[in-house]
Amino acid sequence: MIGERVKQARELRSLTQEQLADQVGVKQATIALIEREALKVRDEIAARIAEITGFPADFFDLPVEQDFPLGSLVYRKFARMKAEHKKLSHRLAQQAFELSEFLAAQLKPIVVRLPRVTDEDSESAARIVRNALGVDPTSPLKNLIQKLERVGVRIFVLPEDIPDLDAFSIMVEGRTPVVVLNAAQAGDRQNFSIAHELGHLVLHYPLTTDQDEIEREANRFAAELLMPEEAMRAEMAIPVTLSTLAELKSRWWVSIAALLQRAKQLGIVNEGQYLYLRKQITQANWLKHEPIGIPADRPRALRRMAEVAYGGTINVRKIAKDAKRPPFLVASLLDASSLVPSDGRVLGFRSKDDSELAEA
């Protein structure tokens, strides 16, 4: 019984060591020793842990092959998150990634074509990424999730709302870019969260120690990626008003607040104008609920991988048995992936036994 797997199952079920120990009928110290692999686990205790957590016995013998660290950017940026929410979000993302790896092993290798930029500033890096995504330098960047999946970024939506979480990113083993999103985000906020984390993946791995600076760089990257300077100078008519910003929101799929911040950053409005418009936004209660709803998108690739690997029809119980995971977990992760792509095709997958390209 691999201790790390016991810890994963326990945290996915939101149990403390003491709570799991009480249900198993042992002391908390016993669970701690099991998770450290400092104790040989008797068969009856192993069976009880599997029963309580709902994970199959085979899960606890799976090697932990990928480094999927908890200490990613979001946990320093969102220090207000409760410890149990950090653990749950981390474990759900880890399981989504491991499920994608299990499915990917049955398919032709996926080529990552996301640029890594280490010798350019944030704005130049954003323009390089726009070009890699096949987007015109001055056009709105819509359907961002599908465009990123096409260049090999693994994007997962957590199957439940995690308080105080927008998104986080991890470069797994230095080679596989991953972005994890909270389920409860408006589309405009989701787009900026993705773009911000993309900035970290493009600019900052391995991570530097100056957290404040890399957060500023990721924000500048996201601003240029979603609201290119050339386009904003052409489209932000002076005087800038909330009405003009609202019109731009419907075209560019970013929030009114983000557009106002961009106008200030580019010097299109001065400090006094910015504060006046910001006050109007606050008085209108738009900080929490802006007008002109932008629908949130969902990734497609995980479900498509399952369709290709299993012949088009998804049998959750079959996948769960093969992946050595409980059906409830596999179902929740696949359900968080979109049934239908929002803009046509996504990243193509091929079965190892199939020469034809499979696309959504």
Brief characterization of the structure:
The chain has 360 residues and is mainly alpha-helical. The protein has 17 helices and 3 strands. The protein has a 3-stranded mixed β-sheet, sandwiched between helices.
Q: What key phrases describe this protein's structure?
A:
434 Repressor (Amino-terminal Domain); mainly alpha; 360 residues; 4% strand; single chain; globular; 3-stranded mixed sheet
Give an account of the 3D structure.
This protein is mainly alpha-helical. The protein has 17 helices and three strands. The chain has a three-stranded mixed beta sheet with strand order 1-3-2, with helices on both faces. The C terminus is likely disordered.
Largest sheet descriptor: 3 strands, mixed
The ordered H/E elements are: HHHHHHHHEEEHHHHHHHHH
* Major sheet: arrangement of strands: 1-3-2
Estimate the helix proportion, in percent.
40-55%
CATH homologous superfamily assignment of the domain at 1-64? lambda repressor-like DNA-binding domains
Q: How do the strands and helices of this protein lay out in sequence?
A:
Elements: H1 3-12, H2 17-24, H3 28-35, H4 43-53, H5 73-77, H6 83-104, H7 122-132, H8 144-150, E1 154-157, E2 167-172, E3 176-181, H9 187-203, H10 211-226, H11 229-235, H12 242-252, H13 256-265, H14 271-283, H15 301-309, H16 316-323, H17 327-335
Parallel strand pairs: 1-3
Antiparallel strand pairs: 2-3
Helix pairs in contact: 1-6, 2-3, 6-15, 7-10, 9-10, 13-14, 16-17
